[in-house]
Structure formats: C-alpha cells, structure tokens
C-alpha cells in the first residue's frame, strides 16, 4: 500500500477514514465472534449424541451379550443418535455451502406449479394433508432448486410442529409473489420469534429432541432467502398456529446481476 501523506488529506477526510476503518474492524470482530460461537455450538451439538452413543456402546459391551432387551435398547439409541449426528453434519455442510456463494442457476419458474409438485411430494412422503390455494399462474426468474429447498424447510417445520392440515396460499402481491405456509399447530411464543432464524435455536429443546430437530433449518432458510432476495415474515400464536410468508420478488432475470 502507498502511504497516505497526511498533508494531502484534510482533517475531515482523516476522521472519515478512521471511522470507516473502525467500522470495518468492528464488523470483522463481530463476524469472528459469530464464527467462534458457531464452532462452539456445533461442537456441543455433535458431542451430545456422541456421548450418548459411547455410553450405550459401553452398556452393550457390559450387558448386551447376556440381556437381549438391553442390547435392543442400546442399539436403538445408537442408531437414533447416529442419524441425528448425520443430520447435523449434513445441515452444517449446507450452511457452509451457502456461505461459499455457489453460483445461482436462474430460470423462469412457475411458482404455482413448483408448489403443487412440492406439496404432492410432501403429502406422499408424510401422509399429511397439504392444501394449495391461490393463483395458478405465477411466474418469476429464480433458482428453482434453492427455492424448493427453502419451501421444503418451512413445510417440513409446519408438518413437524402441527398435526392438522397445512394450507399454502400463493398470490401476486404488488411487485412480489406472496407464499404463505400456515399450520394449526402449537405456535411460537412472541418473544422467541426474532430468534427462530439463529443457528441451533430451538424453542423447546426437550420437545424438539423427540422430533429430532437440529435448530439449523431456519438458519439455512434465512441464507437461502437472502440469496434469492426473498423476505420472510412470521406470524404465530400459541395454541393456534403459525404462518410463514415468503415475499418472492417478481423479476425478469437475476442472471446478469448475481449469476457470475
Ligand atoms: P428444527 O430443526 O429444530 O426444526 P429450525 O431452525 O427449523 O430447527 O426451527 C427452529 C425452531 O423454531 C424449532 O425448533 C421450533 O421450536 C420452532 N419452529 C419452527 N417452525 C415452527 C412451526 N411451524 N411451528 C412451531 N414452531 C416452529
């Protein structure tokens, strides 16, 4: 770098450079702290199932050969915790992949058609009722794969945290297409809504252990939404249900801007 000669730079400019520099350093520090927090959370989340696996494997060694009931219990726990670890690792890699800014693949997409296909798949896989309402011709340019991944995360949550039908409504709303995924499940406490998209955040850890959540789904959803310039709004009431609304911008072609 060329050294800046103070005489050439006015006091105001120096102060401005100082402020910019401080701002950059603060942003770097915040980023670093977030990264540290992530590593520490990730280690903790991976360590928990590993500890369970280790203790059941030891139990299996001690008593499994003489007691079939103990052996079955231990093996079941080992299988469950291993798949939990597997899911955690897959999702962590997913977060890392999104961070790498892999290029987008932008094409014209009929959102209503995409929703119809995705809902049919979900219905088939989970034997639950997913109802599609709204318009049938809704086009925009976007990365279909990434949008589908985002929809899948929200639909999967709606399924996991409710027992009733799930209603999906897609309509044009100004310069956007609005997609609302509504469930009639347990709902989310108001003061926790702002944390939902934090990594590893779960409203109720005990409850969600049973459903096998990692707390990474919505963090991935947030990053996907940012890349696709989609806004996510959440409305929820305890005991009534939740709705997650995506505002997908109607745009001609993102490719020149973001598909380098
Ligand atoms: P998880 O893998 O635990 O589902 P997410 O990041 O997808 O993680 O969601 C974070 C938390 O937000 C969940 O653990 C759950 O407590 C809450 N949550 C998300 N979607 C819903 C929903 N539709 N209804 C109720 N709670 C939800």
From TrEMBL:
What is the uppermost EC class here?
transferase
Q: How does it sit in the membrane?
A: Multi-pass membrane protein
The Histidine kinase domain covers which part of the protein?
41-252
- The chain positions of domain HAMP read 1-33
Query: Catalysed reaction(s)?
Result: ATP + protein L-histidine = ADP + protein N-phospho-L-histidine
- What's the chief localization of this chain? membrane
Its protein name is Signal transduction histidine-protein kinase ArlS
Instruction: Quote the EC number.
Output: 2.7.13.3
What part of the full protein is here? 196 to 455 of 455
Keyword GTP-binding (UniProt): no
Species name: Ureibacillus galli
Q: Write down the superkingdom of origin.
A: Bacteria
For this UniProt record, give its keywords in alphabetical order, as a comma-separated list: ATP-binding, Cell membrane, Kinase, Membrane, Nucleotide-binding, Phosphoprotein, Transferase, Transmembrane, Transmembrane helix, Two-component regulatory system
Recorded GO MF terms: kinase activity
Q: Where in the cell is it found?
A: Cell membrane
């Amino acid at each position: 770098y060329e050294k800046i000669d103070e005489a050439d730079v006015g006091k105001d400019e120096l102060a401005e450079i100082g402020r910019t520099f401080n701002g950059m350093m603060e942003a770097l520090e915040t980023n670093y702290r977030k990264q540290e927090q992530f590593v520490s959370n990730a280690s903790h989340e991976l360590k928990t199932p590993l500890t369970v696996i280790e203790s059941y494997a030891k139990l299996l060694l001690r008593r499994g050969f003489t007691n079939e009931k103990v052996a079955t219990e231990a093996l079941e726990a080992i299988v469950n915790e291993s798949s939990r670890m597997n899911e955690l690792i897959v999702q962590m890699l997913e977060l890392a992949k999104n961070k790498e800014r892999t290029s987008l693949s932008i094409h014209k997409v009929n959102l209503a058609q995409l929703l119809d296909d995705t809902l049919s798949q979900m219905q088939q896989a989970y034997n639950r009722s997913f109802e599609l309402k709204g318009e049938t011709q809704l086009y925009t340019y976007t990365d279909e794969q990434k949008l589908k991944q985002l929809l899948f995360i929200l639909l999967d949550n709606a399924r996991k945290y409710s027992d009733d039908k799930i209603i999906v409504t897609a309509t044009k709303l100004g310069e956007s297409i609005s997609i609302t995924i509504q469930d009639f499940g347990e709902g989310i406490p108001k003061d926790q809504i702002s944390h939902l998209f934090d990594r590893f955040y779960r409203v109720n850890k005990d409850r969600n252990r049973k459903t096998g959540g990692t707390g990474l789904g919505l963090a991935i959803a947030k990053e996907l939404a940012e890349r696709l310039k989609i806004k996510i709004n959440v409305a929820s009431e305890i005991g009534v249900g939740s709705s997650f609304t995506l505002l997908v911008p109607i745009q001609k072609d993102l490719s020149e801007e973001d598909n380098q």
